[in-house]
Design brief:
Blueprint lengths: L21 H7 L10 H11 L1 H13 L34 E10 L10 E5 L57 E5 L5 E7 L10 E13 L2 E14 L2 H8 L31 E4 L8 E9 L26
Parallel strand pairs: 1-8
Antiparallel strand pairs: 1-4, 2-3, 2-5, 5-6, 7-8
């Protein structure tokens, strides 16, 4: 694995999206976008308010010496791009409810934290759109370009439908970078990302993608060498998602939302399957959310997310689910 867009140390928001103007960004979110919490300032504010909670979350995770069940491997999906920037704040110009994502990676065999390994995330914005794929939209059409040879055609609606893009990797439509990032774990195996609560798109419950890379090193060119030992997805409880649905700019998203129980990829195994622990003010979710989870991974494995959900072989006779 090699990341080629790294420059400097933790360039938080160093590259702001260049192809979507502020006016267009507000238009995408409707008038509600103008009053939504936005950008790095909002995320930082959420982090400040939740400092005590964050400390408690890290302390509890670090104190736990129990070995965990191996975290479920899941598909990479069609919207992965391997030029992510090393940064803690991935918001750029996106509006939404601030989300502080606290992730810890441990060795499943020894229960020891993964130190100096790379954890990567990417997800859609409040309207259900991924950077790099803005022309694809949030469910209005299949990703541009032909599917890879041998990839079954996805059905017009549902889990393999247009919002998820069917199987295979989709061809990017732009070089935007919001809501994508990578970081090196600290001595306790932690990374934290400042982002926004994801929205939803056709065929999928609300989720965030992740990869854990180990055995390599960060150089002036990015993260070089090693292997991807884990590819997974994080999920959100229904009560939290429902709370966002009435809050700008999420309330402008008219795509029919798939619930966690309806999702075809979530393995329905709680934390092992990627379900985040969430902390927020139940009366004011707009003030921000802290999401945290510990991932137990196999350092000796290579899991690049190209198989079927759950880490099995890719199906040969039925469509690959959307991601």
């Amino acid at each position: 694995m090699r990341m080629s867009r790294s420059s400097g140390e933790e360039p938080d928001n160093a590259l702001v999206s260049r192809f979507v103007s502020r006016r267009r960004m507000l238009a995408l979110g409707g008038a509600a976008g103008a009053v939504a919490l936005s950008g790095a300032g909002a995320a930082a504010s959420a982090a400040d308010r939740g400092a005590d909670t964050l400390g408690s979350v890290k302390a509890a995770a670090s104190a736990s010496g129990a070995c965990m069940s191996l975290t479920t491997e899941q598909i990479e999906g069609p919207y992965y791009i391997d030029y992510e920037l090393f940064r803690k704040n991935v918001v750029e110009d996106r509006t939404g409810i601030p989300l502080l994502l606290v992730l810890r990676a441990v060795d499943n065999a020894t229960c020891e934290p993964l130190r100096n390994s790379a954890v990567e995330i990417w997800h859609c914005d409040a309207s259900g759109v991924y950077s790099g794929y803005t022309q694809t939209g949030n469910g209005g059409g299949t990703p541009p370009g032909p599917p890879p040879t041998g990839t079954p055609t996805a059905p017009p609606d549902g889990p393999g439908g247009p919002g998820g893009g069917g199987g295979g990797h989709a061809t990017p439509t732009d070089d935007l970078t919001w809501l994508r990032g990578i970081q090196m774990t600290d001595h306790q195996g932690f990374v934290t990302f400042r982002t926004v609560f994801p929205g939803w798109y056709t065929g999928r419950a609300v989720h965030i993608h992740t990869k854990v890379h180990t055995g390599g090193s960060r150089t002036s060119d990015g993260y070089t060498g090693g292997r991807t030992c884990h590819t997974g997805q994080f999920y959100f409880s229904e009560d939290a998602v429902e709370a966002t649905a009435d809050t700008a700019p999420y309330s402008a998203n008219t795509v029919t939302r798939v619930t966690l129980d309806q999702d075809s990829i979530y393995p329905k195994t709680g934390t092992q399957g990627g379900l985040l622990e969430l902390v927020w003010d139940k009366k004011h979710i707009e003030r921000g959310v802290i999401g945290h989870i510990t991932m137990a991974v196999d350092l000796s494995a290579t899991n690049d997310g190209q198989g079927a959900p759950g880490g099995g072989p890719a199906p040969t006779t039925s469509p690959t689910p959307s991601a």
